[in-house]
Fold this protein.
Amino acid sequence: MRKIFLTLTVLVLITTVLFSSCASIVSKTSYPIYIRTNPAGANISITNKKGKEVYRGQSPTTVTLKSGAGYFAKAEYLVKLSSVGFEEKVIPINYKLNAWYFGNLFIGGLIGMLIIDPLTGAMWKIKDPVVNETLAKTSTTILITPNLNIVDIKNVSEESKSQLVRIN
């Protein structure tokens, strides 16, 4: 009886080590990103690295984005912010290697390190979960239409007279 119990315990431990992955258990495969702009209500468009739009809305908002983009590939997103009267701004959202991925050396084993975490995207973690941007106002060009005003010199101030140019 004791030999069967010991064998089952060893079998469960080996199975747990071989068929688990540290980053997938401890971490996530999608992360929320909080987007806030000044002015509020700016249009938001998020595209993935293939150029496909994955989100469209207005700020402030929270968007959940996947961390993986395929086997051993991290996700990359571009957040485009725009508002009438303000310059458009594009901010990259990048992911970095998740430190829990290396926990596979102790807990998850080779299956976790080479298959599960790379496939699920759990091996990647977001660098900065907050986008807080102030949009710059667009420079506007004012068109001045020239006017011709005829004024008697007696009605011109002394300050204006000092700026006059004599024409011969």
